[in-house]
């Protein structure tokens, strides 16, 4: 019974993390370039149960079937699917219509990656993000807007596995390894890539998570009643 409470605790803790992740995805459904974050769980290794209540003296080992103590959060990954492109008509908006990410330098000097091309121009006529992060060019320096037509020389890099990028929030991501420059990236000026979050899928996941919460609540109530009877009734015998 005590093991049951521990298993239920781990299950509810996992469901809370799933619910937080779903809420985060839904909150960013309108964030340009946002990639949905997915969680995956695993089951703890099965352990063998036994006791020594066999034989006349209750000292012989009896082997029972295996028991699993529940599931745990094994990790997360980003959904690399491309979002739909939406025309904005703004000259400072850019969408990547291929693999890759814009490179930006944050205020602390850290390099981050994003597919959100909703840029603006600073006082030096350089492209920056809405948060003021510097957008990098192929020379790893700032990109200055010019009167000449054509796509600016942005630095676009790709990764072998986009799902391993770490989310920093607001469609910014980091990587422990440097990206590989993309040759001839396909960029569309005057457009933005929309979030790839599927609201309908997230709502289905939320309903499923809610039902699992209810099932765990019922199991917890039943376990608590059994434990209460064991303590109050069996203890009198």
UniProtKB/TrEMBL annotation:
Keywords: Bacterial flagellum, Cell projection, Cilium, Flagellum. Its main location: other. It is found in: Bacterial flagellum basal body. Residues 189-232 form the Flagellar basal-body/hook protein C-terminal domain. Coiled coil: none annotated. It comes from the Bacteria. GO terms for biological process: bacterial-type flagellum-dependent swarming motility. GO terms for cellular component: bacterial-type flagellum basal body. Residues 95-144 form the Flagellar hook protein FlgE/F/G-like D1 domain. PANTHER family: FLAGELLAR BASAL-BODY ROD PROTEIN FLGG, FLAGELLAR PROTEIN. Belongs to the flagella basal body rod proteins family. This is Flagellar basal-body rod protein.
